[in-house]
Specification:
The protein is α/β, with parallel strands linked by helices. It contains 7 helices and 16 strands. The chain starts with 9 loop residues before the first strand and ends with a helix. Residues 1-7 have low confidence and may be disordered.
Length: 268
């Protein structure tokens, strides 16, 4: 009788917490992936694993977390927290050894004071006005339940099997996108202008769905890209706010393709 050898599943560490989400619905995105085993770990425990020793046995890291923000601060929430030096060193070491990273949705807001982190991700969402790459910027914008058309820009392994255009209803960000540093994959048909978004800073001050006095310039409609982060492949996908997107077959294909692509360097 011939011996049948099954290829071991790709092992993925999924870092979560920092932003509300439906854990069961989000976990279902990974449960349907053939040959991929996902382990979900909450922050701050996940940060302790983001180093070569902690991720021994894992093939890739998925970021669906939003660390470095204290939403329970008595005034001016969220307060920004500095990443621990061990995390800075460990995360850099992961990228230097080629560990692939897939960052989803609100991960763009994590570790707001860690410039290198956002250089690696390819953009940043800000809860307060601040400075990005030496220039003053306003807080970012958010818009929930936006029905928009997603256009695939490139014939790439991450977009393999997707139609040229598909529709999502999801939250969008008017945020900083470092377009010159990334390889574009997806653009949105939505208007990324001030009048279509709400101020994040006003929201955390108790004024949800408000833009009074917030004069944010028009931003990028790029919502998916790849990037080389040191020796690692990285993919950022802005979609992913809630169950309707989690259940969308095109979104699930994107996330699965992204995981397989970022691990290819290490598993080939």
């Amino acid at each position: 009788m011939p011996i049948i050898r099954h290829r071991a599943a790709l092992q993925v560490l999924v870092a979560v917490r920092g932003h509300p989400f439906d854990r069961t619905a989000f976990d279902a995105v990974f449960q349907q992936m053939d040959g991929i085993a996902a382990t979900m770990v909450d922050q701050p425990a996940a940060a302790r694993l983001m180093n070569p020793d902690g991720m021994r046995g894992f093939d890739a890291l998925v970021l669906y977390d939003m660390p470095g923000l204290d939403f329970e601060a008595p005034e001016g929430a969220p307060h920004y927290r500095e990443p621990d030096p061990a995390l800075r060193e460990g995360f850099r070491a992961l990228l230097e050894q080629g560990t692939g990273v897939v960052a989803l949705h609100h991960a763009l807001a994590g570790w707001p004071t860690w410039r290198e982190y956002h250089d690696w991700l390819g953009g940043q969402f800000l809860y307060h006005p601040g400075e990005v790459r030496g220039a003053p910027v306003l807080d970012s914008g958010y818009a929930h339940d936006v029905t928009h058309e997603v256009s695939v820009l490139a014939d790439h392994p991450v977009t393999a099997g997707l139609p040229e255009r598909f529709t999502l209803t999801d939250e969008l960000y008017l945020a900083q996108v470092f377009e010159a540093d990334v390889t574009p994959l997806l653009r949105s048909s939505a208007a990324f202008t001030r009048d279509h978004f709400w101020s994040a800073d006003l929201a955390v001050r108790g004024r949800m769905h408000d833009r009074e006095g917030w004069d944010h310039p028009a931003g990028s409609n790029l919502i998916g890209w790849t990037k080389q982060a040191l020796n690692s492949r990285l993919v950022y996908l802005q979609p992913g706010d809630g169950p309707s997107t989690y259940a969308d077959p095109n979104y699930r294909r994107l996330v699965e393709n992204a995981i397989r692509w970022v691990t290819k360097v290490r598993t080939a």
